[in-house]
Each structure stands twice: as structure tokens, then as C-alpha cells.
Amino acid sequence: MAIKGLKSNYYKYPVKYHELTEEQCETIINASLRIMENIGLVIKHERARTMLKDAGCTVDGETVRFPKELVIDCINSAAKELVLYDRNGNKALQVSGTNTYFGLGPTNPFTNDFETGERRKACRKDVKNSVLVADACPNIDFMMGLAQVQDCDIRISDVVEMREMLENTTKPIVGWGVNVQGLKDQVAMCAAVAGGIDKLREKPFLSLFPGCPVSPLIIAENEFEKIEYSIQEGFSIVWSSGAQLGTVTPVTIAGAFSLNLAEIFAGIVLAQLIKKGSCVVCGVVVLTVDMGTTQAAYGSPEHCIGEAMSADIFHYLDLPMWQTAGVTDSKSADEQSAIECSMGALINTISGGHMVHDVGFLDGAMSASLDQIVLNDEIIGYAKRVARGITIDEETLAYDVIEEVGPGGEFLTSEHTAENFREEFWFPKLIDRSRYTIWEEKKEDMRTRVHNRTAKILAEHKPEPLSEEVIRKLDAILEEAQKRLS
Question: Once rounded to an integer, what is the mean pLDDT over residues 418-422?
Fold first, then answer.
């Protein structure tokens, strides 16, 4: 049941786990195309509606209906890969295929204070500490600020966040914007670090998150303006929708996903009409709405199913994707967090998801924790080892070694063991494998080990510094943003 005009890439990228068959991918994609063609989306921006009308869409007031052929053409013209660099110009992320990367999330209004454990409003220093800790964690691959900064004017919280991120990591960054001016300020900061806007475009360490569609089926005026600016400036965008089952989407996962996918397709169309070949990192986040508490749950099995569905759909379309894991509904980095984050990380790695954000979130993305970052660093390392699997060849089958050792022998002193164990085994930093007599001396549980490792990072990790000249430029951009508000 192929879709006319769309080539299936379902089998191009072999993964260890599928949620959908190729035929089910096509059924959901067709359902989304039907929604766009017959029901349409409300597009709040007049310039966007004009652009869509000129491209062949039917416009009725603010409602726009999209011809199937236009949507398919735009999907086909979108970039199939995003490459992001680190601050020093080294290739860091190749967002395509089955490459899976993990990063922090944005806009938490609260944080769990590292010293007291008490929940409080997020502030500027929390961005600094979150990024510093994540910079030291080898399994955290890209950065977001993990906080909606509250100790500044909220209208420039995104700019304040970028200022702190740039000083405390060399890893790639995803910046979000309150408005277009906020994105402009952030791009100016990144250009200052890169040595100019042309160098930043040549080897970008920045992708931009303009916001999300408003489910069901609305693209707001501000979001379009941020998409337009980002694409015109030559940067990739992250365009993600959140299915809250039974509230702003149907309660059935298939129905919710098809609705949200229509919203994502609309963003792809807009991006391609602005600049053909532009890169859109696509995401659909499925959230259970607990009917007992009315809270949206990130730690649910339905969320994991949605992550695997996203991987299947966007592999089929051969588009870079935006995933979610490392977030829990627990209020602390505890056993519940470990369960929920482990399932999310594992599902994303074995299904081949790409940019997996929200590591470090607690309380269904309302709060954040430094310990949660460190706990997830361990979980992600475990999951990546499972996803890597094993190699089967003459070396790993070890026939000659088995023949040499023979019945009743041992392999501990074999050269084959010494040459291969580092590649074959994953080595944890926090999981305890010591003998009981050794563990008994301290009797540290996992929470204590996590907290101690976080404290050690905060005390000892020194991110690669920026030059004083660059620091002055960043501060000048932030100062100018503050002046505009007054």
C-alpha cells in the first residue's frame, strides 16, 4: 500500500524494535494527509496564509486546506539530515539514520535545589549548573537550558539562558525563542562565539526551536514568524507537537498521532515554501492524560509507544526527528524516575530515534534536577550498549581460542579476553557491582551515589572557557536586550 509520490525508507534503516509495520506507517501518513486536505488547519498569520494560497492551498478565513500533492512535494524536498558541530568546529551530531543523541530540555519553571532538595523557582544559576553538569556527562550530546529563568524579565529569559549555555559547554545547542527578537539575539551571541555569522552557518552548533503548533490543528502567529526567521537565516528548526490523549487529541494513540502528524506536515510545508531544502527536525510526543489526576504523564507506556511510532514514521519519510526521554513524572530522582527514564531511553535507542530531549526533567516537565541529569547519563549509557548489540565474525566467535583452551580450561588469562573485553563490556559509573563486604563499608544507595557524583562534577568540572573578548560581546548583546525592555 505505497503512497504515491512518497518513497518508503522503512527498511533502509534496520533497527532492533518497530512499533509499526510499513503498512501501518502508510495508514497513519495517509490519515494525516486526509486531515490536511479535508479538515485543514487554522493558520493565524496572514502572510503565511497568502504563501499557502499561492502554493495551491484552499484558504477559507483562517482555515487552510492543503492539497496532498503539495504536502508530499514538501516532504520530499526537506533536508534528510542535520549535521551539528561543537563550539570548536568538530562534527558532533549527524542526525540521520539510526544515530541516537540525548540532550536536556527547555522551559522548566521550577527546579529541585541541589543543596536542600526543595522545589523552587528556576533561576539563571540553574541554567549554568545544569549545562555544566551535562557538559561533563559523556552520554549527554546536546544542550538546552533546563529552566525557564525566573530571576530576570521573562521576555528575555531565552536570551539569558543562551548566555549561560554558551559559557558552560562546547556541545551543540538547541535554542528556543520567546519571540523573533529573542532568536535574533541568540543567533548574534552564537555568531560572536563562532567568529561571525558566516562561520556559524558553515559549521552550525545551533538549531532553533520556534515553538509548537497549538493542538488541535492551529499554528499561531508568533510561531510562524519564528519559523520564518529561522529558515530565512539558514538554520534548522525543531518542530514538535504534543499529543495529550483524550484532551486536545483523540484518546486513541493512532488518532492522536495522525492529528499531530498533520500539524508537523504543515510546518514542513511552510518551511519549504520559505526556503526549499531547509531542515525541519520533526517530533510527535505522545502523553497520557491520567484520568484520575488530569496530569499529562511522560512516564507512561503510551509515551514509549509514541516514541517508537515516531521513529518508524520518520524513518519511513527519511526525515530527522525530535524525541523525548529522560523525563519522569516523579518529583525527585528516585526509583520511579529510574524506571520511567530507563524505558524511554531504551525504546528510543533500539528504535533508532534521533535527537532525544528533556533529559533532566521531573514532575512531568514542570521541574528539573541536577541529579536527574547524572542518573540519566548512566541509564543512557546502558541503553546505548543494548542498542549497539554484538558483532558476529571469526574474531568474536573465538573458535581458535576455544580450541586452544579446550574442555576444563579458563579464559581469564587469554589474550583474546584482554584484547576484547573493553569493547564487549559496558562499564558503569554509578551501578554498584562490588562484593557485599566492600559495599558494607559505606552502604551507599543509588541516590547517594548519584548525588555524590553530581557534587563532584560541580566542584571539579571546568568547561572550556570563552575568551574575554567573546564574553564582552555576549554581555553587550544581553545588555542591549535588557535596554529594549525599558
Answer: 95
